[in-house]
Amino acid sequence: MNIHEYQAKAVLREFGVPTPRGIAAFSVEEAVKAANELASAVTVVKAQIHAGGRGKAGGVKVVKTIEDVEKEAKRLLGSILVTHQTGPRGKEVHRLYIEEGSAIDKEFYLSALVDRGTGRVSFVVSTEGGMDIEHVAAETPEKIVSFSIDPATGVMPHHGRLVARTLGLKGDLAKQADVLIGKLHEAFLAKDMSMLEINPLVVTKDGKLICLDAKVSFDSNALYRHPDIVALRDLTEEDEKEIEASKYDLNYIALDGTIGCMVNGAGLAMATMDIIKLYGESPANFLDVGGGASKDKVTAAFKIITADPNVKGILINIFGGIMRCDVIAEGVIAAVKEVGLPVPLVVRLEGTNVELGKKIIAESGLNVVSADDLDDAAQKIVKAVKGAA
Ligand code: GDP
Ligand code: MN
Questions:
Q1: Which entry of 152, 160, 289, 367 is 20 to 30 Å from 272 by CA?
Q2: Residues 289-317: pLDDT tens digits?
Q3: Is 47 close to ligand 1, i.e. is its CB under 6 Å away?
Q4: Omega of the bond prior to 344 within 30 degrees of 0, cis?
Q5: d(CA 38, CA 32)
Q6: Which residues of 144-160 are buried (b: 16+ CB within 10 A; e: fewer)?
Q7: Which of 9, 69, 104, 201 has the most ligand 1 atoms within 8 A of CB, as the residue to mutate?
Q8: How many Cα atoms are found within 13 Å in the side-chain-facing hemisphere of 226?
Q9: Mind giving me the DSSP string for 282-350?
């Protein structure tokens, strides 16, 4: 689960992490009121969306007067911000963060994440702040330093020294870096974060190390023990289809392609997406209906897929192990009866009760193409979609 920058900063502040003063605003009036309350010489108006790259897209404005705060708030609220992280459709701005401006001396990059390789929390640090870390990694990998924290000892003084050395910080700033790493690590563990990115971490002209931006993701499997974090969820930032799917406990991820997929098992779902790609089309979603899906679940999944206007064809690929093919067949037919079948449908069933499943579909009178194996199924649906285009 992701949260907004202003929420992430509030969470970090609970752990004593230094951030600029700021107030969230949901309207132009609130933005002006916030700026008056902050009463700083320089104010930053920041669009709050669940995506980075706002600065380059005009979503972060450093201004000097209340009039300009008002002007930028008017411009941003309700506008669609397109950044390199939002995709071409962009995201609508509903919230702003009004922040006290900082006089920046240096900008750095710092992040922490769960590193599956080492099974530990790893930190990534670089002098190249404000840039995309992916670019830095590709072009100047020597400017990135990473280290992992042994859970038995936690953050040690040598970690602080490594960060200070990497960022060229001396004296009091080195001390601040050491303290900061400890606090960020504490927050990361206490809140079950999966990713924490401070880009940029800055040194101000008056010698303070502060977090100017903050992006945090949380481990969804641990949300049950963080009601305070769950309360920060902003559903307007999430895909409607994914919200609907989560109500039925379906593992669904919306994608940009044209072929809707209904598959059981994450591995088979990935293989299905790959083979669709291999034959020249793209999947519209990842969907694992799970091992023990009920008829209702299958019906819900089918409705979510057909509601996506990008879907030009559907491929159902089920290997019935625990899941029975006849249950899938009944779910599909129930769904088609309810929502119709506006696009070609290819079904490949295999495993438990496969004959019964095929019979149910064959006798339904529906215009369904049946396929024998994964290869056959992918070729048939790609051909059907290309033929329709
Ligand atoms: P992002 O583009 O979505 O990552 O948004 P950021 O919060 O990182 O802001 C983008 C850029 O705006 C930063 O890299 C800074 O260069 C600049 N910026 C943000 N806040 C301030 C500030 O208080 N003072 C100054 N001078 N620049 C700022
Ligand atoms: Mn940033």
A1: 367
A2: 887 777 788 888 988 999 899 999 999 99
A3: no
A4: no
A5: 10
A6: beebbbeeeeebeeebb
A7: 104
A8: 20
A9: -BSEEEE--TT--HHHHHHHHHHHHT-TT--EEEEEEEESSS-HHHHHHHHHHHHHHH---S-EEEEEE
Atom of ligand 1 nearest to the CA of 104: 26
Question: Considering the domain 21-101 in this protein, what is its CATH number?
Answer: 3.30.1490.20
Beta carbon of 55 within 6 Å of any ligand 1 atom:
yes
The domain 239-388 is classified under which CATH number: 3.40.50.261, 3.10.450.50, 1.20.1250.20, 3.10.129.10? 3.40.50.261
Q: Is 249 annotated among the ligand-binding residues?
A: no
* Burial (CB count <10 Å: 0-12, 13-18, 19+), residue 29: exposed
- Region 169-184: what's the mean pLDDT? 97
> Residue 184 and residue 167: Cα distance in Å, rounded?
17
Q: Considering only CA atoms, which of 190, 162, 193 is closest in space to residue 178?
A: 162
Q: Is the dihedral of CA 283, 286, 289, 291 positive or negative?
A: positive
- Tell me which CATH code domain 1-19+103-238 carries: 3.30.470.20
Residue whose CA is closest, atom 9 of ligand 1? Answer: 55
Strand partners, 322: none
Structure confidence by residue, pLDDT tens digits, 69-112: 999 999 999 999 999 998 888 999 999 999 999 999 999 999 99
Dig out the tokens for 84 from the structure. Answer: 């390199």
> For residue 56, which atom of ligand 1 is closest to its CA?
2
Structure tokens of 197? 């990115």
Give nearest CA residue, ligand 1 atom 16.
130
Which pair of structure tokens corresponds to residue 103?
């006089």
**Residues 148 and 122 sit within 8 Å (Cβ to Cβ):** yes
Three-state SS at 167: helix
